[in-house]
Amino acid sequence: MPAASVMRRCLAMVPVLRAPLRALLQAWIALAMLLASGAARAEPAVRVPPGTRADAQGQLVSGRGLRETSDFFAAELARRGIDAQQIGPYAVRGVEITRFVSRTASTPWLAIHVLRSAGKTLIFFVPRGK
Hints:
alpha+beta
């Protein structure tokens, strides 16, 4: 449900509030929505390469190439003592991919996929099943 719709519905439930109380309620609702959206965009469990950003769809786009990004993850996982099997890099149907599959049960992710397609290097964290 869109945020504006939620706010309208909450405010419609209390039409007798005076303007100052109504403004206070609006501020609390806005703050709660901001905090909730921040929790949904949690930081990845492993540090990502410098220059990595989220695009319009929310995908992580590395500022580096496939090889540099793969080498960064291999070094970062080794530094943290996380046992992960590196598969690749290899190419399938015009897409280059490197996979890091975790052998450590305590990681919140099962695998990290680094893809290079259409000139973009994308990073995906595959969550571990519960």
